[in-house]
Amino acid sequence: MFLEVTTDPPNLYFVIDRSGSMAEIVDGRRKYDVVATAAVSLARALGSQANVGAAVFPGRAADPADQCAPGGEVYPTGPGDPIRNGLCGSDGPVTRAFSRAISLPSGVTPSGGTPTAATLTALLPTLAALHGRTFVVLATDGGPNCNPKASCDVTKCILNIEGQPGCTSTINCCDPQNVPDGPSFCLDDDATKTAVVDLFARGIKTYVVGIPGSSPYASLLDELASEGGTARTGMTTKYYDVEHISELDDVLASIGAIVTLSCHVHLAALPPDSNLVNVYLDGVLVKFGPNGWTWGSAVSDAGSDEGNADAADVEDEPGAPADPEAGTVDAGVSHQDIELVGTACDMLSSGKYRRLQVVFGCPTDIPR
Questions:
Q1: Nearest-CA neighbor of 77 among 59, 101, 58, 57?
Q2: pLDDT-based confidence at residue 306 (cuts at 50, 70, 90)
Q3: CA nearest 127: which of 46, 17, 203?
C-alpha cells in the first residue's frame, strides 16, 4: 500500500532574460525559445504540485527606444493544472495560458539590455505578497546592466568583457566620453546582488540558471546563487551552469524536484501500523535512522489503542523493532509526519531525485 504524501505547493516564479543576446541560435534553436519551452515542460510536469508565475526582462511592451525598461510580470502566480493521473491528452488550461504568456509572438525577436536588478526590485512586492514558500528561477545568458548611473573600468564594462570592436584594454567603452550611453553597459553587479539579498530577506530563494553565453559572468552568478540561498556544493559552479542547451530541461527539473520535495513529509492519513512503513527515493530504500528517516513530532498512531500503544506490547509483535527509537509506536511520537535526516535529506535536496514514496506493508527496515 502506498501512503499518499501531501505537500504545501510552493510558488515557482520564473524570471526570464529576453535581452537581445537571447535571440542567438544555439544548436539550431533560439535561446529564448529553449528557455520558454523548458519552463512550460516543468510547469506541465509539476502540475498541481506547484504554483507557477513568470516575468520577462526587459519589459515586453517597452518602447524600442528604451532598451533598458525594467521587466514585468507576464503570468500571475497560480496553481498548476490538476494531476492527470497519466492519462494522455492535451495540456490543461493553466499550462496553455502559461505557455502563451512567456512565449514571444510570431515575428517578435528578443531585444534590449539586461535590467536584472531593476526587474527583481520591481517584482519584490508581488513576490513577497504570495502565500507560502516562494522560489525565483532566474534564467539569464549574460551579465546584468542597464544602470545609467553606474561607472566602471574596462574589467567591468560588458562591451569590453565581450570584446566588442574598438573596446580594448586601453579604451573603456563604458566611459561616456567614448560611448555616450556607455555607463548603461557597466556590469550592474552590486545592485543585482542587493536585489537578490532583499528577496532572501523576505524568505524568497533565487535559483540562478546560466544559459550558454553567461560564462564570462560566472563569478557574479556564483555570488547571486550564494546570496539567494541556493549555492550548490561539490560542483564546478554554485549556480546552475547550462553548458549545452539540451541540458536545460534536466536542470529545471532538478530545481523543480528540490522545491516540491521536502525533507518534512506529511502523510494524508495515519498508517494503520507504524512498524510497517518504509520510505523510498526513486525506488531506492531509505532506512530508518540518523542518516535516513525518523518519525516527526505531532499526534499518535491510528492503529494504536485510543491513539497510544504500550512499548512492551509493540516489542512483542512479530517483525516489530525492539528499540522504541527504531520505528515503533510511541505515545509522544507522530506517525503522520516523517522527517528525512542526515544523508537522506542531503540526497533529496540535491535535486537528483524525482519521486518520494512512503509504502506500508513490510516491517520498517532499520540498519543493523
A1: 101
A2: very low
A3: 203
b/e for 132-161, b at 16 or more Cβ within 10 A? ebbbbbbbbbbbbbbbeebebebebbbbbb
Query: In the structure grid, which three cell numbers stand for residue 169, read together?
Result: 584594454
Which residues is 159 bridged to in the sheet? Answer: none
Task: Give 3's strand partners.
Answer: 358
Task: Please tell me the least confidently modeled range out of 32-41, 88-97, 264-273, 322-331.
Answer: 322-331
Q: Tell me which CATH code domain 9-147+188-260 carries.
A: 3.40.50.410
At 337, the amino acid letter reads D
Residue range 26-46, pLDDT digits in tens: 999 999 999 999 999 999 989
Closest to 282 (Cα-Cα) out of 347, 327, 234: 347
More confident residue, 114 or 311: 114
Q: Name the band, by pLDDT with cuts 50, 70 and 90, for residue 368.
A: confident
Distances (CA, A) of 347 to 235, 263, 302, 353: 14, 10, 30, 8
Upstream peptide bond of 144 is cis (omega within 30 degrees of 0): no
- How confident is the model over 205-229, as a mean pLDDT? 97
Say if residue 210 is exposed, middle or buried (CB neighbours under 10 Å; 0-12, 13-18, 19+). Answer: buried
Task: From 59, 55, 54, 129, select the one nearest 95 (Cα to Cα).
Answer: 54
Please give the distance of CA 99 from its chain centroid, rounded to a whole number: 18
Residue 209: CB atoms within 10 A of its CB come to: 26
